[in-house]
Target: 8-amino-7-oxononanoate synthase
Amino acid sequence: MEFPKKLQQKLEDRQEANALRHLASHNCTIDFSSNDYLGFSKNETIFNNSRDFLIGHNIKQNGATGSRLLSGNHSLFPIIESIISNVHKAESALIFNSGYDANVGFFSSVPQRGDIILYDEYVHASIRDGIAMNHAKAYKFKHNDLESLDEMLKRVQHDSTIYIVTESVFSMDGDSPDLKKLVDISKTHKAHLVIDEAHAIGVFGNRGEGLVQNLGLEQDVFTRMITFGKAMGCHGAAILGSDTLKQYLINFSRSFIYTTALPPHSLASIHSSYNELFVTNNRRLLHENIQFFKSEIKRLGLEYFSFGETSEGQMGFIESYSAIHCCVISGNENLKTIAQKLQEQSFDVKPILSPTVPKGQERLRFCMHAYNTKEEISEVLKLLAIFVDI
Model:
């Protein structure tokens, strides 16, 4: 059958904007693009301990067989959810199949008609998609601009339930809001604070518990979303909150109710990843690499620079203390050219193109890992300085 013309036109429009996405094999040998911040995805101890954990519980099962409300709520779920809630000092934890499922499940079911959602303009697509599925009124505030948020809160109807939504570490910038100030604002306006900690878990905290907990704010947040597919190196996600919230989600969150549960091996991997998180030296190595990366940016003059005659404004790195560091280089074509040159030198650095980010804010996204060497960090930034000709 002929492919629908409207869909074909959308593909052609994206091709003309030099923004058409492709699935590509990963031939680069030096990783500066994955979310495997601690190297846990390739950790043999986690792999072996996951197997031993399953054998110890006499579980020899490949699949979950159904949703958790039917046949899929196998014996490991309450064990792992109890561990997660204890580690993160939450009353309850509810495991979802992915961070996307968790955000869509929460935001499509919890805010009700007449409620108000105020969300940072840079929140993840999964949050936006969940918000689009409910009947609450939703308004975005300027990225990390808490004064703007405070002014918006003063104008909304305070007889409504208000949800403030942000991320502790933003995936496309690597930056963070002032969480302590955000808690103060939410208390002043009696709003429910919802924080996605996907890129903070494993990276921040004495044992990698996340940025909220590192600041001692866990009791001041209505809900936290955590994921296991990034620094934890495995798969799945969880929503942290009260027992009542957990019961509500079990009854009304469609992405939880109508999906096959995670298989036992995924839960065993989560268990083993937490055990490794408590003893690993990798978090210290990661933060040493983050600091070295930042010092090299400064040494090479990459903090701010001009790029070519057609540059749209000043280019440079966004301030970040997380594992994510982004160098803004305006224009999809410019950015893809530089990324290709780095990849030809075996450095896996990904371009983030519009429309994923706003036009004019395209960027190279560098992800730091515990296993990156100082030599690799210096070399990739030296090459970047050459390719942008500063």
The chain has a mean pLDDT of 94. The chain is about 40% helix and 15% strand.
